[in-house]
Design goal:
Largest sheet: none
Number of strands: 0
Number of domains: 1
Oligomer: single chain
Distance between the termini: 98 Å
Helix content: over 70%
Structural class: mainly alpha
Strand content: under 5%
Order of helices and strands: HHHHHHH
């Protein structure tokens, strides 16, 4: 009677090591199919979100610093608007190309590694696994470009269309500060870190970048008696 009870109740008590081996093997197989798959999907989603937050932060800091720097040598609204728009387009293209090349290089390395450890009959299957483990280069490029453009649009839209110089610079600084704090807190939340500390670090870093850009261009303008004239 004892062996029959053990075999009947093995599926109900899979954690007991004294029950049948078939039940334990079934539990292990179910965990192998259910647990890691969900975990991999969550990690991949978190990596994409974190990359998007970092890309948006780069776009915000780059374009805000560029507009502030242009404001140091030119008081016209059109010059700041054009410089910000140029920074948005150039930065988004640079991010897209860099991500495209990076993902393709990573894919080539993974394919070469998988082919070196398999026989010729298994090489085709190894290539398919590499493609599943990596994002599409085109998709990664588009995501990076969109993230950069989204962050860059914040200072561009907030201060690019204001006429007074002081209001324009203040709008760029204020919107950039709010965006930096938000992006820093979002990145910390995705990474499991402190939102306050991360937001403060990102905010101070953005302020430093804008201040350095303004100071360098202002000193350049004063040293060489140069001022960019707007039409």
């Amino acid at each position: 009677m004892a062996p029959n009870l053990g075999s009947d109740h093995a599926p109900q008590f899979p954690s007991r090591p004294k029950h049948g081996e078939v039940a334990d093997a079934g539990d292990i197989e179910a965990a192998a199919h259910d647990g890691p798959a969900g975990r991999v999907d969550y990690l991949a989603r978190a990596q994409w979100l974190r990359a998007a937050v970092l890309g948006a932060n780069d776009g915000l800091v780059s374009v805000a610093s560029l507009m502030i720097g242009m404001g140091a040598v030119n008081g016209g609204a059109r010059a700041m608007l054009v410089s910000g728009l140029a920074g948005l387009v150039a930065g988004a293209c640079s991010m897209a190309i860099g991500e495209f090349v990076s993902v393709y290089a990573q894919y080539d390395i993974q394919v070469a590694h998988s082919e070196g450890g398999r026989v010729c009959s298994e090489e085709a299957g190894g290539g398919g696994e590499g493609e599943e483990g990596l994002p599409s280069p085109a998709q990664a490029a588009a995501a990076s470009a969109l993230a950069f453009a989204a962050g860059a649009a914040l200072p561009l839209l907030s201060g690019g269309f204001l006429r007074p110089w002081a209001a324009r610079v203040a709008a760029v600084c204020a919107s950039s500060s709010l965006g930096l704090a938000g992006f820093g807190a979002a990145g910390a939340y995705l990474g499991g870190a402190s939102a306050v500390r991360s937001g403060a670090r990102v905010l101070l870093g953005g302020w430093l970048a804008m201040a350095v850009t303004f100071a360098v261009l202002k000193m350049f303008s004063l040293a060489f008696k140069t001022q960019v004239m707007s039409a």
